[in-house]
Amino acid sequence: MLSRSPISKEETRETVEEILEAYPAKVAKKRSKHVIIRNPEEIDQEIAANERTTPGIITQRGCAYAGCKGVVVGPFGDCIHIVHGPIGCSYYAWMTRRNQYKTREDGRNWLNYSFSTDLQEEDIVFGGINKLKTAVREAYNIFDPKPKSITIHATCPVGLIGDDIQGAAKELTEELGLPVVAFNCEGYKGVSQSAGHHIANNGFFKHWIGTDTETEEIEGFTVNLMGEYNIGGDAWEIERVLEKCGIKTVATFSGDGTYDAATKAHLAKVNLVMCHRSINYMATMMETKYGVPWIKVNFIGIHAFAKSIRKVARFFDNPELTARVEEVLTEEIALAEAQLAEYRKRLEGKTVFLFVGGSRAHHYQELFADLGMKTIVAGYEFAHRDDYEGRQALPKIRVDADSRNIEELEVEPDPERYNPTRPPEVLEQLREEKVIGDYEGMMPDMGEDTLLVDNISHHELDVLIKRFKPDLIGSGIKDKYIIEKFGIPCKQLHSYDYGGPFAGFRGAVNFAKDVDLRVNGQAWKYIKAPWQK
């Protein structure tokens, strides 16, 4: 991953200049801070992020509502998630990410349903709060067994007309006898879906985490999977290996997640954070209130998985567990490597662009490296600077007006349930070793003269494709088909193009097969974009 870009420094600089020349002067000045040529010799190299997209620029981003309901809350299958807003908003966040959920013995599973109040013009004029209450009661009464919880998600019109969804949720919680949780995640909150992640974290922490007061302890080497959304079954492959090692998953946020497990999440010994951006808030708050530390992990790629699972073993520092982990890794890596060998022969030296949300543009570089492929341009849709530069950047990040839209919870140690899972001196040592509480970001893993582009626009993507001619682009649905009209295969890494799992050892083999079919497919040479001469 740290190898130098195969594109010359001169061509990279010329490409950046070409990108910026197309913009008006003020826009070019702003965008220049978001397009960075990686220089490992520059200590504390910075990149602008989490800023408003310039009006008129076509962006990959989603809204706060999409981040809250569509990403973080929606994958809980034993709860009913009601969207308070127009039907289009409901449809947008329904089944677009291919989160997988296994129905438990109790029969609760509403993941495939789209619940909406379907606001009309008269509701905007006269208010929709009574319609919301009716919808919640109706959803509760229709199904048996009853949902474990009901969530309410506000869209833009609801915030504009002032419907009191928090008051309605409180009233309905008392009336129905189950937690009804409202999320004021109107799409305009914040500059991207990242704001919605934060809102979802706050809602979970206030209303779900720690509400199981009967279970006192869960024995064994217990973890929570956080920021893992089980797209294409990723969480099941991760849990397969963890279970094989003797590590028990208490709760997952949120892929294949259940309400009961979430209420017990504070009892896990450590949180394993996959998507740093979408879940770091809750990981930090759980450490403060309950003493549960967190480990930044990456389960995408065989060597990344091995490194992460060894960090977990180091945290528990149990000889039997460590030996078992090494035994499992030896077996799994050998099997995966044997299956990857043929694919690597055909993929070695191929180049990749990665423009994916949260942490995936970082995670998948590890898996492409396993295949002998080089990521030469990468960026996030909705990241903050710490996702690029690491958490050491946090003290230098200015809190702007958009960030102040999101509530910051005041969290203190729980006087009765604050229970550090390791002795203080051990935790301090683990911090010094950067096993817990640390994330160095994507930038340190980017090789010299590679390019980082935050919140890329279609114009910038067009220029980069024409100049660098990558063999594959990993991106999202909004730009997938534009990319493929250039004759470049695009691997959709938000919902996996109906494939997966791609996490873990078996996932790496699935991914290699998929990428090989795309990169070495013959169809691309016959494609010529309509606008190309």
Structural description of this entry:
By secondary structure, the chain is α/β, with parallel strands linked by helices. Among the domains are: 64-187, 3-Layer(aba) Sandwich (Rossmann fold), CATH 3.40.50.1980; 222-341 and 394-433, Nitrogenase molybdenum iron protein domain (Rossmann fold, 3-Layer(aba) Sandwich), CATH 3.40.50. Helices cover 42% and strands 12% of the residues. The chain contains 20 helices and 14 strands. Strand 13, helix 19 (477-485) and strand 14 form a beta-alpha-beta unit. Helix 1 (9-21) packs antiparallel against helix 18 (458-468), helix 6 (129-142) runs parallel beside helix 8 and helix 9 (193-207) runs parallel beside helix 12.
Keywords, please?
single chain, 533 residues, alpha/beta, Rossmann fold, four-stranded parallel β-sheet, 14 strands
Q: What is this structure, in a nutshell?
A:
The chain has helices at residues 9-21, 25-31, 64-73, 87-92, 121-126, 129-142, 156-161, 165-176, 193-207, 234-245, 259-263, 276-290, 302-316, 319-347, 360-370, 385-389, 424-432, 458-468, 477-485, 504-519, and strands at residues 35-37, 80-84, 115-116, 150-154, 180-183, 221-228, 247-254, 270-273, 294-296, 351-355, 374-379, 451-453, 472-475, 490-492. The chain has 533 residues and is α/β, with parallel strands linked by helices.
